[in-house]
Amino acid sequence: MQARGGTGALVRLQPDAPLRVLPGVGPSTAERLATAGLRTVLDLVRFFPRRFRSLRELEAPDEAAVGELVRLTGEVKQARLAWLPGRRTMVTVPFTGGDGSSFEVQFFNQPWLKKAYPPGQKRQVEGLLAQKGRRFVLQQARVLPVGSAPQGEVQLRYPEVEGISSARLQLWIAACLDRLDWAAVQIEPLPAGLEEFDGASHELMAAMHRPLDTARHEAARRHFAVREAAALFAT
Protein backbone atom coordinates (compact mmCIF):
# COMPACT_ATOMS: atom_id res chain seq x y z
CA MET A 1 0.00 0.00 0.00
CA GLN A 2 1.33 3.44 -0.86
CA ALA A 3 1.77 5.96 1.94
CA ARG A 4 -0.33 9.10 1.73
CA GLY A 5 -0.34 12.36 3.63
CA GLY A 6 -3.14 13.76 5.73
CA THR A 7 -4.77 15.32 2.68
CA GLY A 8 -4.71 12.07 0.76
CA ALA A 9 -1.80 13.17 -1.45
CA LEU A 10 0.86 10.59 -2.27
CA VAL A 11 3.94 11.08 -0.07
CA ARG A 12 6.92 11.55 -2.37
CA LEU A 13 10.26 9.93 -1.58
CA GLN A 14 13.46 11.93 -1.79
CA PRO A 15 16.30 10.34 -3.77
CA ASP A 16 18.53 10.13 -0.67
CA ALA A 17 15.83 8.58 1.54
CA PRO A 18 17.04 5.36 3.22
CA LEU A 19 15.45 2.13 2.06
CA ARG A 20 13.97 1.64 5.54
CA VAL A 21 11.10 3.87 4.36
CA LEU A 22 9.87 1.01 2.15
CA PRO A 23 7.36 -1.49 3.56
CA GLY A 24 9.07 -4.71 4.62
CA VAL A 25 12.59 -3.28 4.82
CA GLY A 26 13.74 -3.72 8.40
CA PRO A 27 17.25 -3.45 9.89
CA SER A 28 18.48 -6.88 8.73
CA THR A 29 17.03 -6.46 5.23
CA ALA A 30 18.51 -2.97 4.95
CA GLU A 31 21.89 -4.44 5.89
CA ARG A 32 21.63 -7.07 3.15
CA LEU A 33 20.71 -4.40 0.62
CA ALA A 34 23.57 -2.18 1.77
CA THR A 35 26.00 -5.05 1.23
CA ALA A 36 24.94 -4.95 -2.43
CA GLY A 37 25.48 -1.17 -2.52
CA LEU A 38 21.78 -0.33 -2.15
CA ARG A 39 21.27 2.22 0.61
CA THR A 40 18.95 4.89 -0.77
CA VAL A 41 15.84 5.10 -2.94
CA LEU A 42 17.93 6.37 -5.85
CA ASP A 43 20.35 3.45 -5.45
CA LEU A 44 17.45 1.05 -5.89
CA VAL A 45 16.06 2.90 -8.91
CA ARG A 46 19.54 2.66 -10.45
CA PHE A 47 19.76 -1.07 -9.78
CA PHE A 48 19.28 -2.12 -13.39
CA PRO A 49 18.42 -5.53 -14.88
CA ARG A 50 21.47 -7.48 -15.96
CA ARG A 51 19.75 -8.94 -19.01
CA PHE A 52 16.44 -9.01 -20.84
CA ARG A 53 14.52 -11.10 -23.33
CA SER A 54 11.63 -10.25 -25.62
CA LEU A 55 8.34 -12.02 -24.99
CA ARG A 56 4.77 -12.05 -26.24
CA GLU A 57 1.95 -11.03 -23.95
CA LEU A 58 -1.00 -13.30 -24.75
CA GLU A 59 -4.60 -13.31 -23.60
CA ALA A 60 -4.71 -17.10 -24.01
CA PRO A 61 -2.33 -19.92 -25.02
CA ASP A 62 -1.88 -20.06 -28.77
CA GLU A 63 -0.45 -22.92 -30.81
CA ALA A 64 1.23 -20.34 -33.03
CA ALA A 65 3.30 -19.16 -30.04
CA VAL A 66 4.59 -22.62 -28.98
CA GLY A 67 8.33 -22.40 -28.35
CA GLU A 68 8.21 -18.68 -27.58
CA LEU A 69 8.62 -16.82 -24.30
CA VAL A 70 5.15 -15.56 -23.32
CA ARG A 71 3.28 -13.89 -20.47
CA LEU A 72 -0.17 -15.17 -19.50
CA THR A 73 -2.64 -14.19 -16.80
CA GLY A 74 -4.74 -16.85 -15.11
CA GLU A 75 -6.64 -17.87 -12.00
CA VAL A 76 -5.19 -20.70 -9.95
CA LYS A 77 -7.18 -23.92 -9.84
CA GLN A 78 -6.20 -26.70 -7.42
CA ALA A 79 -2.41 -27.21 -7.19
CA ARG A 80 -1.28 -30.85 -7.19
CA LEU A 81 1.72 -32.53 -5.58
CA ALA A 82 3.12 -35.77 -7.02
CA TRP A 83 5.96 -37.91 -5.71
CA LEU A 84 8.40 -39.16 -8.33
CA PRO A 85 11.01 -41.95 -8.18
CA GLY A 86 14.04 -41.12 -6.08
CA ARG A 87 12.02 -39.08 -3.58
CA ARG A 88 11.67 -36.29 -6.09
CA THR A 89 8.52 -34.19 -6.29
CA MET A 90 6.57 -32.29 -8.89
CA VAL A 91 4.07 -29.54 -8.10
CA THR A 92 1.64 -28.79 -10.92
CA VAL A 93 -0.25 -25.50 -10.77
CA PRO A 94 -3.14 -25.30 -13.29
CA PHE A 95 -4.50 -21.91 -14.33
CA THR A 96 -7.69 -20.81 -16.05
CA GLY A 97 -7.49 -17.82 -18.36
CA GLY A 98 -10.13 -15.11 -18.59
CA ASP A 99 -11.52 -16.70 -21.76
CA GLY A 100 -11.79 -20.15 -20.14
CA SER A 101 -8.54 -21.46 -21.64
CA SER A 102 -6.14 -23.38 -19.42
CA PHE A 103 -2.41 -23.81 -18.95
CA GLU A 104 -0.11 -25.36 -16.36
CA VAL A 105 3.15 -24.60 -14.58
CA GLN A 106 5.30 -27.33 -13.05
CA PHE A 107 7.93 -27.08 -10.33
CA PHE A 108 10.33 -29.91 -9.49
CA ASN A 109 11.59 -30.67 -5.97
CA GLN A 110 9.84 -27.70 -4.39
CA PRO A 111 6.90 -29.39 -2.60
CA TRP A 112 6.20 -26.34 -0.41
CA LEU A 113 4.98 -24.48 -3.48
CA LYS A 114 1.74 -26.45 -3.39
CA LYS A 115 0.55 -24.14 -0.61
CA ALA A 116 1.91 -21.00 -2.27
CA TYR A 117 -0.84 -20.91 -4.90
CA PRO A 118 -4.31 -21.04 -3.28
CA PRO A 119 -7.30 -21.68 -5.57
CA GLY A 120 -8.86 -18.52 -6.97
CA GLN A 121 -5.69 -16.46 -6.79
CA LYS A 122 -4.99 -14.45 -9.95
CA ARG A 123 -1.37 -14.44 -11.13
CA GLN A 124 0.73 -13.53 -14.11
CA VAL A 125 3.13 -16.16 -15.42
CA GLU A 126 6.06 -15.94 -17.82
CA GLY A 127 7.69 -18.91 -19.50
CA LEU A 128 8.34 -20.87 -22.68
CA LEU A 129 5.04 -22.04 -24.10
CA ALA A 130 4.93 -25.79 -24.81
CA GLN A 131 2.15 -28.15 -25.79
CA LYS A 132 1.91 -31.69 -24.41
CA GLY A 133 -0.93 -33.44 -26.15
CA ARG A 134 -3.89 -31.13 -25.65
CA ARG A 135 -2.34 -29.36 -22.64
CA PHE A 136 -0.41 -26.08 -22.69
CA VAL A 137 2.50 -25.87 -20.25
CA LEU A 138 4.80 -22.96 -19.44
CA GLN A 139 8.35 -24.24 -19.03
CA GLN A 140 11.13 -22.46 -17.12
CA ALA A 141 8.25 -20.50 -15.67
CA ARG A 142 8.28 -17.45 -13.40
CA VAL A 143 5.10 -16.75 -11.46
CA LEU A 144 5.18 -13.01 -10.88
CA PRO A 145 4.56 -11.55 -7.42
CA VAL A 146 1.03 -10.83 -6.26
CA GLY A 147 0.25 -7.21 -6.99
CA SER A 148 2.83 -6.79 -9.73
CA ALA A 149 1.56 -5.45 -13.02
CA PRO A 150 4.24 -5.83 -15.69
CA GLN A 151 3.35 -4.58 -19.13
CA GLY A 152 5.09 -4.67 -22.44
CA GLU A 153 6.88 -7.41 -24.29
CA VAL A 154 10.09 -7.64 -22.26
CA GLN A 155 11.19 -10.02 -19.50
CA LEU A 156 13.79 -8.59 -17.11
CA ARG A 157 16.36 -10.45 -15.01
CA TYR A 158 18.01 -8.62 -12.12
CA PRO A 159 21.33 -9.34 -10.40
CA GLU A 160 20.95 -11.51 -7.32
CA VAL A 161 21.09 -9.94 -3.88
CA GLU A 162 21.93 -12.48 -1.19
CA GLY A 163 19.00 -13.13 1.13
CA ILE A 164 16.55 -11.08 -0.97
CA SER A 165 14.17 -12.69 -3.44
CA SER A 166 13.89 -11.21 -6.92
CA ALA A 167 10.14 -10.81 -6.39
CA ARG A 168 10.57 -8.64 -3.28
CA LEU A 169 13.30 -6.61 -4.94
CA GLN A 170 11.13 -5.82 -7.94
CA LEU A 171 8.21 -4.77 -5.74
CA TRP A 172 10.47 -2.31 -3.90
CA ILE A 173 11.82 -0.96 -7.19
CA ALA A 174 8.24 -0.46 -8.40
CA ALA A 175 7.38 1.40 -5.18
CA CYS A 176 10.37 3.68 -5.64
CA LEU A 177 9.47 4.40 -9.26
CA ASP A 178 5.91 5.31 -8.25
CA ARG A 179 6.78 7.47 -5.26
CA LEU A 180 10.11 9.07 -6.14
CA ASP A 181 10.12 12.87 -6.34
CA TRP A 182 11.55 13.05 -9.84
CA ALA A 183 11.92 16.84 -9.62
CA ALA A 184 14.63 16.21 -7.02
CA VAL A 185 16.58 13.81 -9.27
CA GLN A 186 19.38 15.76 -10.87
CA ILE A 187 21.18 14.05 -13.76
CA GLU A 188 23.84 16.01 -15.62
CA PRO A 189 23.30 16.20 -19.38
CA LEU A 190 25.58 14.14 -21.57
CA PRO A 191 28.58 15.89 -23.16
CA ALA A 192 28.12 17.81 -26.39
CA GLY A 193 27.75 15.56 -29.41
CA LEU A 194 25.98 12.81 -27.44
CA GLU A 195 22.57 14.47 -27.21
CA GLU A 196 20.93 11.72 -29.26
CA PHE A 197 21.48 9.33 -26.34
CA ASP A 198 20.00 11.65 -23.71
CA GLY A 199 16.49 11.81 -22.26
CA ALA A 200 14.37 12.71 -19.23
CA SER A 201 15.46 10.84 -16.10
CA HIS A 202 12.03 9.42 -15.24
CA GLU A 203 11.50 8.21 -18.82
CA LEU A 204 14.90 6.52 -18.91
CA MET A 205 14.35 4.82 -15.55
CA ALA A 206 10.88 3.66 -16.62
CA ALA A 207 12.35 2.21 -19.82
CA MET A 208 14.91 0.31 -17.76
CA HIS A 209 12.43 -1.19 -15.29
CA ARG A 210 9.07 -1.06 -17.11
CA PRO A 211 9.85 -1.14 -20.83
CA LEU A 212 6.94 -1.43 -23.23
CA ASP A 213 9.21 -3.01 -25.83
CA THR A 214 12.81 -4.06 -26.36
CA ALA A 215 13.61 -1.01 -28.50
CA ARG A 216 12.87 1.41 -25.64
CA HIS A 217 14.78 -0.75 -23.17
CA GLU A 218 17.80 -0.96 -25.46
CA ALA A 219 17.72 2.81 -25.98
CA ALA A 220 17.78 3.37 -22.20
CA ARG A 221 20.60 0.86 -21.77
CA ARG A 222 22.59 2.70 -24.44
CA HIS A 223 22.06 5.98 -22.58
CA PHE A 224 23.48 4.64 -19.32
CA ALA A 225 26.32 2.84 -21.11
CA VAL A 226 27.28 6.08 -22.88
CA ARG A 227 27.01 7.98 -19.59
CA GLU A 228 29.32 5.49 -17.88
CA ALA A 229 31.82 5.66 -20.73
CA ALA A 230 31.76 9.49 -20.70
CA ALA A 231 32.41 9.48 -16.95
CA LEU A 232 35.41 7.17 -17.41
CA PHE A 233 36.93 9.37 -20.10
CA ALA A 234 36.38 12.45 -17.93
CA THR A 235 38.53 11.06 -15.11
What structural class should be given to the helix and strand makeup?
alpha+beta
The dominant shape is globular
Helix content: 10-25%
Q: Total number of β-strand segments?
A: 9
User: Which sheet architecture does the biggest sheet show?
Assistant: 5 strands, mixed, barrel
Overall mean pLDDT stands at 90
Low-confidence sequence ranges = none
N-end to C-end Cα span: 43 Å
Helix-strand string: HHEEEEEEEEEHHH
Radius of gyration of CA atoms, rounded to a whole number: 20 Å
Compute the number of helices: 5
Strand content: 25-35%
Strand order, biggest sheet? 3-5-6-8-7
Task: Please tell me about this protein's structure.
This protein is α+β, with helices and mostly antiparallel strands and 235 residues long. Helix content is 25%, strand content 25%. It contains 5 helices and 9 strands. The chain has a 5-stranded mixed β-barrel. β5 (88-96) and β6 (102-108) form a beta hairpin. α4 (201-209) packs across α5. It is globular. It starts with 26 loop residues before the first helix and ends with a helix. The mean pLDDT is 90.
Question: What is this entry, summarized?
Answer:
With 235 residues, the protein is of the alpha+beta class. Helix content is 25%, strand content 25%.
Q: Which descriptors apply to this entry?
A:
5-stranded mixed β-barrel; 235 residues; two-stranded antiparallel ribbon; alpha+beta
List the helices and strands and how they pair.
Blueprint: H1 27-35, H2 41-45, E1 51-54, E2 56-57, E3 69-76, E4 80-84, E5 88-96, E6 102-108, E7 122-132, E8 135-143, E9 154-157, H3 166-179, H4 201-209, H5 214-234
Parallel strand pairs: 2-3, 6-8
Antiparallel strand pairs: 1-9, 3-5, 3-7, 4-5, 5-6, 7-8
